[in-house]
Amino acid sequence: MSLLDVRDLRVGFRLDRHSTNEALKGISFSVPHNATVALVGESGSGKSVASLAVMGLLDPAAAIVDPASSIRFDGRELLALDGKQRRALCGKDIAMIFQEPMSSLNPVFTVGAQIAEVLKLHMGMNRGQARRRTLELLEEVGIPDPAARIDGYPNELSGGQQQRVMIAMAVACEPRLLIADEPTTALDVTIQQQIMELLARLQRRRAMSVLFITHDLGLVAQIADHVVVMRRGEVREAGPAQQVLQQPADAYTRALLHCRPRLDARPWRLPVIADYLDGATPPPQPERRRGASPDDVPLLEVRNLSKHFMLRDGWWRQREFHAVKDVSFTLARGKTLGVVGESGSGKTTVGLTLLRLHQASGGSVLFDGRDLLSLSPRAFQAYKRRMQIVFQNPYASLNPRFTVGDILLEPMRIHRIGADDQARRAMAQALLEKVGLPASAMSRYPHAFSGGQRQRIAFARCLTLQPEILVCDESVSALDVSVQAQVLNLLQDLQDELGLSYIFISHDLAVVKYMADQVMVMKQGEVVELADADALYRNPQHPYTQALLAAIPRSG
């Protein structure tokens, strides 16, 4: 008998008094004792809904669970338990790690207090016992200097450390089943590798079962014994991990495996989900050549760029933090510079400083021979059109009170592009068509679009100003593999058609390999390696670059 058995689980969400949206359409899967099962699929496939149903965290006012559904944990029917019985079970025998630690950790309580609360509630420990056990847990999950960190607040920890605190909280009561919902999505590749190794180590040491929810098949190959592939509320394929990943039977599984950029090939266009769903295999694509050439025309020359911040150090003192230290590179017309490194390496600060969204502390940025950093605000206005940025989170970068039409027309009005609003509207509709959205999107608001569609709107907004350089700051990192492939194909098309130059900032090294002509590796504000993409990935010179490449998960 398996530890967890889900049978014919159907969950719907009320849209109004008369209609519901069926999120889960009778899914079934099992989690054996002391094994890891990966639940795989894109956003909207129902993965997280299934995990919340197991935990009893679905909102009863919005969610409807079919009475014929069954969720059995160690032979006990969870759907038959009342709220008190469910709470006693979930948190102790069944625990969950959520995707975004900053939204799961309470910012006004210390991390020690939040872990101790679980121990007091479920294990009956007193204050002293809970504190001692919390210190042991922080040490077990690899938090440096636990005695100092136990009284710290979540905002004082890095993203990887916050996720370690969430893991410590989840395993505090020795759960028999651990549910990990996209626990590494927003983390750098090296931190991701550390978290995956930590979970595997805890699973072996504590003989836990793990339900691991993800859309990254590279991680699945690394951690899972069994795989369940979901799409639109249904199970498309299930079986042993090696079989599913190496000999997928379902067209959707094959599509997920092939949409991700590969390190050993750079096809002219990435395949997308639709290319596989009719059962056909897309024809082989020619290879896209990348790299710098002596004939390349320099468009942007950055020399010794530096950026310092003053940070508070106690009540009265301040200290200088060197976020970017003497960064130099050249960007050619129509080429892509990939910028990689862990969080805190200075990648984003470089991009923001180039655009004067941060004031540089030193150096020069020559655009067509003119130093952008020495220009007056009035003189720099003309260059704002020529350099644009696409941010990581389209939810935060689009005004929710503006229609898409307003979002696209506003920059054209400010920079006086187009003869009148009628001409601007025609240009905006043409741009929407260029990024793969219908003209009818003009009258809709951002909330009516998916994450991938919002990112396309963000690209269209940048294109209204007819820029020559786009800074893409983690602009595809939050997207599912299929949507990511669509956006990367769009970027390639725009570069081929318009000759755009990209500064492509990312922690996803496979995506950078696919997009970049040259790659710049940053660590603690400094450039540690800069080379043609193929040469750098084939033969990295710096130990830090070697460590980054070694941490890339492989799906084979």
Automatic annotation (TrEMBL):
Residues 6-257, 300-549 form the ABC transporter domain. Belongs to the ABC transporter superfamily. PANTHER family: D,D-DIPEPTIDE TRANSPORT ATP-BINDING PROTEIN DDPF-RELATED (PTHR43776:SF7), TRANSPORT ATP-BINDING PROTEIN (PTHR43776). GO terms for molecular function: ATP binding. InterPro entries: AAA+_ATPase (IPR003593), ABC_transp_ATP-bind (IPR050319), ABC_transporter-like_ATP-bd (IPR003439), ABC_transporter-like_CS (IPR017871), Oligopep_ABC_C (IPR013563), P-loop_NTPase (IPR027417). Pfam families: ABC_tran, oligo_HPY. This is Dipeptide ABC transporter ATP-binding protein. Keywords: ATP-binding, Cell membrane, Membrane, Nucleotide-binding, Transport. It comes from the Bacteria. The keyword ATP-binding applies. Gene3D superfamilies: P-loop containing nucleotide triphosphate hydrolases (3.40.50.300).
